[in-house]
Amino acid sequence: MPERKNAINAFLADNGWQPEHRSVLADDASFRRYERLVDGNRVAVFMDAPPPQEDTSLFIRIAEHLLSLGLSTPEIYAQNTEQGFLLLEDFGDDTYTRVLNQSPAQEQALYELAVDTLIHLHKCPVEQQIPKDWPAYDLKMLLGEVRIFTDWYLPHVSSELLAPDALIAYETIWEELFDYVQSQSKCLVLRDFHVDNMIFLDGKSGIKACGLLDFQDALVGAQAYDLMSLLEDARRDMDDDLIEILKARYYAAFDDLAEPGAARHAFDAIYAILGAGRHTKVIGIFVRLLVRDGKPNYLIHIPRVWRLLERSLRHPIMASVRDWFDAFVPPPLRDLPLTKAHEDA
Asked: What CATH number is given for 2-89 in this structure?
């Protein structure tokens, strides 16, 4: 809109930026928009995060907090939280995704760096790790996420409405599993910890070489979540052997997880619950992006996410959810959205 464009130009000018070149960066599944600005020898990233859909104050607070814990987040050059404008340090183009595509041989080293970043974060004392009064990844939110599947995916692939009893059963099953998750110890969960949201910073050493992006939705939740998010990526396949190597690296860093036992069994169960919940949510979100937002590009990932979901459902703790999916979302309904969505688009 012209008014917002004028406001953006005024914000940049007020902060001493008159870029001669502006380029749009990668598409985002949220309402946020990013541009790379070049002004003489200076380069920065402009984030346009329109309120009320987005809240830049959360980004600012968590970015500064993660920086204080020794992690790499973009420096904030200028801000206007009322309008939703941020001017950020440019971490460059070496996203994990790009580096992995160009240099597959670096895969294990890059993933080990990401795992070490999580280890560093999770080893911080809880009172330092979690910002004061930070919101929780609570039962209401977790249930709301898995409802995205029944709200968006099922109506898109089937003309038959889900019976009220089936929907109640779905929510009851998930509520029991998420109650178990809530009973476990908590940490700071970044929530979108995957290769698209990490930058390899070649000039830095150790975990500081792992630049973090898209962390403003962080919450207080279960320790297993971000490791699952990294290793069960909706956008990228990983070799099972490498996944086990990386899990072992993470386990070895914590006394209670280093050897098989009750703590490890609980961690693995929660990993499966949260993995199944995330994959269920993501399938629904990808269909919602098509139907509501006119963004079909994410549909290509749905078959992979179904495979990840089905793998999560093989864990014994997920038996009731697996039975529900077998009854109400049989395999033919798991193959439809990619084709049907393109026909409807």
From this structure: 3.30.200.20
Would you say residue 289 has pLDDT above 80?
yes
Q: Which residues contact 250 (CB under 8 A, 6 or more apart)?
A: 115, 118, 119, 227, 257
Q: Two tokens at 211?
A: 């630049």
DSSP H helices, the chain, are 2-14, 56-68, 96-102, 107-123, 126-129, 139-148, 154-157, 164-182, 224-231, 240-252, 262-291, 302-312, 319-328, 331-334, 337-344
Nearest partner of 74 among 103, 54, 45, judged by Cα: 45
Where do we find the tokens 């910890």? Answer: 193
Q: Are 166 and 188 in contact (CB under 8 A)?
A: no
Torsion of CA 265, 266, 268, 274, to 10 degrees: 160
Give the predicted TM-score (pTM) of the model: 0.92
Query: Quick check: 173 and 321 in contact, CB under 8 A?
Result: yes
**CATH 3.30.200.20 residue ranges for the chain:** 2-89
Hey, what CATH class is 96-344 in? alpha beta
Q: Cβ distance 199 to 215 under 8 Å?
A: no
**DSSP secondary structure, 62-104, as one string:** HHHHHHHTT-B---EEEEETTTTEEEEE---S-BHHHHHHH-G
pLDDT, tens only, 58-108: 999 999 999 999 999 999 999 999 999 999 999 999 999 999 999 999 999
Look-up of token digits 């297993």: 224
